[in-house]
From TrEMBL:
Signal peptide: 1-21
Lineage, top ranks: Bacteria, Pseudomonadati, Pseudomonadota, Gammaproteobacteria, Alteromonadales
Keywords tagged on the record: Coiled coil, Signal
Organism field: Shewanella halifaxensis (strain HAW-EB4)
Entry protein name: DUF3373 domain-containing protein
InterPro entries: DUF3373
Coiled coil residues, start to end: 22-56
């Protein structure tokens, strides 16, 4: 616009100058130039104001807010035990061996002869007839140690995006960066299920100095003038009630944070029932989502797809939400749960020594190298159902308290992968590899497919204190407790997924309304293995430490996290 006006003014000056020059009236030319210069200045000023208004109007369409948190942890693990073994059907193994499927045991070049030579204890037990039925096949010597990470710094940046699309349509999103200081590899060594980088947990696992789309969705409210609304996109399914109290923020997600802290894509159809019943904040929601895509990117064209899409569906009801009292009911299910997700990890050298001996020979030459691999599940292991009820109240004296109960149910179908079936161990059977030169153990089925119910409780209180507030929380999970809270950003692991006890205490110091310091401590007392995953049978921690139970991944007896953080909201 400024360029066009400048060209018109310049042409006017040139034209006028030529006319008056012919009249030989230099004074009038000077006067006209002065007037045009004044007009140009006024137009430039007007143009600047118009540009500012246009820019302000454009920026008003997107509201940008966020928070920045720096946190220092001191992490301590006690009785970390690795006692790996698989359960093998030795009746099947013996039958195949006696039939000569694996060659002769006294032939050092046969697959059976090689296996017996490599494991004399196995050979002795086999020859004495001690290997019968389904028994553990120990893969490595048990180790137990304490581990201390005296200082771990993390930085979390979250950018919130909001835009009013129309009178009853809006968009919301959140971009997140979460990283350790001095680390942007984005891939962790696979020593626990929480270190498995995947779509649903990326926002709660430290990765690197890049932004991820934690949530992005639109809300279409008051459809056709009714209390009905529709929302589609990457769901606000993290930091739900009542976990917002320990985060010192408003309600961050829709579903119960006791049951769900997991990113997924889907849709919600809601109805503001309170407009009919008169109960403030009463909302009924029907939710649908997809937790796993089985075919795209999984080698579909080779015809070796053995997994299925995982679909989620259920109900979420805010029965009361009046600013003081909050009562919520949740019930949903996951159909066709697989024994894992698409993701990336650094392959552990220890597992290479067990499962990839040829590769391990080369890996020993580069002891500080791990190769990065993209993994995918091996099959469908069953269905899951989750339900819960939560109540929170904020008193007149600013005391806030809550209580939440949860239930999970796993229904296995008898299938199993390398790490097990639905809350059941895998039973392995021996077979020859592709060229017939080696005996390998492959998961054949789950040890059992009986339904398994778990439960969890979560209680807490937050009390005003000098310069801020103090809080205390406790949660417990039973042997088969399996919520979807793996994206919770506790570095030891989601405290609400723990099969055992967790206690937390914190003190929050309010620096100003947009900045606070938090000092906290968490103590984990695990009772069973496998917290946070439906794959594999939970084992009693004490029995693993004693050597009478086994686990493919290291297990932790107790752990504590002492941390301090500063958070700035902007």
């Amino acid at each position: 616009m400024r360029t066009l006006i400048s060209l018109l003014v310049a042409n006017a000056i040139a034209f006028s100058g030529s006319v008056y020059a012919n009249e030989n009236d230099a004074q009038k030319i000077a006067d006209l130039k002065q007037q045009l210069e004044e007009i140009t200045n006024e137009i430039d000023d007007l143009n600047d104001r118009v540009d500012q208004n246009e820019r302000h109007t454009a920026l008003d369409r997107i509201e940008l807010t966020g928070d920045f948190r720096t946190k220092a942890h001191s992490l301590h693990y006690r009785n970390v035990t690795w006692n790996p073994a698989i359960k093998v059907n030795f009746n099947d193994f013996g039958a195949k061996a006696m039939a000569g499927d694996f060659g002769m045991p006294n032939d050092p070049n046969s697959p059976l002869g090689k296996m017996m030579a490599a494991d004399p204890n196995l050979a002795a037990a086999f020859q004495s007839g001690q290997l019968q039925g389904v028994m553990p096949y120990v893969l490595a010597q048990k180790t137990t140690q304490d581990i201390d990470n005296d200082i771990l710094y993390t930085t979390r940046l979250r950018l919130n995006l909001k835009a009013k699309v129309w009178d009853n349509v809006s968009f919301a999103g959140r971009l997140s960066m979460y990283k350790n200081w001095g680390d942007s590899t984005g891939v962790q060594v696979f020593d626990s299920w929480r270190s498995f980088t995947m779509d649903g947990t990326n926002s709660g696992n430290t990765s690197g100095d890049w932004l991820r789309v934690e949530r992005a969705y639109f809300d279409w409210k008051n459809i056709n003038g009714s209390p009905l609304y529709l929302s589609i996109g990457r769901r606000p399914s993290t930091y739900g009630p009542p976990t917002q109290y320990r985060e010192n923020e408003k309600r961050g997600g829709t579903p119960s944070g006791h049951l769900v802290n997991f990113n997924f894509d889907g849709a919600t159809l809601g109805y503001k029932l309170g407009e009919l019943t008169g109960v403030e904040g009463q909302v009924v929601r029907i939710c649908y989502g997809q937790g796993f895509e089985s075919q795209w990117g999984n080698g579909e064209m080779f015809g070796d797809i053995v997994t299925k899409d995982t679909h989620l569906g259920g109900f979420n009801i805010d029965a009361i939400n009046d600013g003081r009292n909050f009562l919520q009911f949740t019930l949903f299910g996951a159909k066709d749960v697989n024994d894992g997700f698409k993701g990336t990890m650094a392959f552990p050298t220890q597992l290479a020594g067990i499962f990839a001996p040829t590769m391990y020979q080369d890996m020993q030459k580069f002891s500080n190298f791990n190769f990065e691999t993209r993994v995918q599940p091996s099959g469908v292991i069953g269905d899951m159902f989750l339900g819960g009820i939560g109540f929170a109240r904020e008193e007149d004296n600013d005391v806030k308290w809550f209580v939440s109960g949860g239930w999970t149910r796993a229904e296995g179908n008898g299938n199993a992968g390398m790490f097990g079936g639905m809350l059941s161990d895998a039973v392995f059977e021996a077979q020859l590899n592709a060229d017939g030169s080696e005996i390998i153990m492959m998961a054949a089925n789950a040890e059992d497919s009986d339904p398994k119910d778990g439960y969890g409780v979560y209680v807490g209180v937050q009390i005003p204190a000098p310069y801020g507030k103090v809080g205390f929380e406790y949660n417990y999970g039973s042997e088969y407790w399996t919520p979807f809270t793996q994206a919770q950003d506790d570095p030891i692991g989601s405290k609400l997924a723990t099969r055992g006890h967790v206690g937390e205490a914190y003190y929050m110091f309010d620096i100003n309304p947009r900045m606070f310091i938090k000092l906290a401590g968490l103590y984990y007392d695990y009772e069973y293995t496998g917290s946070g995953t439906p794959v594999g049978a939970p084992q009693d921690i004490d029995e693993v430490i004693a050597g009478t139970a086994y686990s493919m991944l290291p297990v932790v007896d107790t752990a504590f996290d002492i941390n301090a953080s500063v958070t700035v909201n902007f």
